[in-house]
Amino acid sequence: MSDKNFIGMGHNPNPNVPDIPEGFAMALLQEPDARTSFQNLSDEQKTNVIQYIQNNNLTGTDAKNKINNAIKNLNNNSIDFI
After folding, report:
1. How far apart are CA 44 and CA 48, in angstroms?
2. pLDDT tens digits, residue range 9-25?
3. From CA 5, how far away is CA 11, in angstroms rounded?
């Protein structure tokens, strides 16, 4: 698997991008269009998406809502949410 296609948790082989949160990885696996869109992002854009999902969550619901928003936008090839 190439660095560009890394999905999951653990030790990301690409040191320029943080590990993908488990919930986001699961959502990407269920949404092929969003996964392709995410894979085609630059390292900086991937990092921004992951930080958007991880930052300022008071509850698990907050994180789920951010994941759903990210997936919805990525399905439309949009990163306007970050």
Report:
1. 6
2. 455 666 777 888 889 99
3. 13
Phi and psi (nearest 5°) for 7?
Answer: -135, 135
pLDDT tens per residue across span 18-45 = 888 889 999 999 999 999 999 999 999 9
Q: Could you tell me if residue 82 is inside a domain?
A: no
Domain of 63? 20-75
pTM: 0.80
Domain count, the chain: 1
> If you search the block for the tokens 């995410």, which residue do you land on?
38
Helices (H), the chain: 22-30, 32-39, 43-54, 60-75
**Does residue 11 lie in a domain region?**
no
User: How far separated are the first and last CA of the chain, in Å rounded?
Assistant: 27
Distance (Å, whole) CA 71 – CA 18:
18
